[in-house]
Write a structure and sequence with these properties.
Blueprint: H1 2-5, E1 12-16, H2 22-29, E2 34-39, H3 42-49, E3 54-59, E4 76-78
């Protein structure tokens, strides 16, 4: 959906709730290169890092404000399979 919505691939994309990086890997196949992964689990981010598609990996709780991000830092964001945890 993101690839169909954007005419350029040189945009900054936040993969919020990146998990193992499956969505980022698919975006990379479509030509996206400036990807940032954000996830609550550092273990999941380690698996995402193995995909070698992310420029940055950030650990954060999406139910709280994320100080590490500036609101104008990204051109697009994706959330795949992010609902809740408890």
């Amino acid at each position: 959906v993101l690839a169909r919505s954007l005419t350029r691939r040189d945009v900054r994309v936040l993969d919020a709730g990146a998990g193992t990086g499956a969505a980022g890997a698919e975006l990379a196949k479509l030509g996206f290169r400036d990807l940032t992964a954000l996830d609550l689990s550092s273990d999941m981010l380690e698996r995402a890092a193995e995909k070698n598609v992310y420029r940055r990996l950030l650990t954060a709780d999406l139910s709280l404000p994320v100080d590490a991000l500036q609101s104008d830092h990204f051109d697009a964001a994706i959330l795949v399979g992010v609902f809740s945890y408890g």
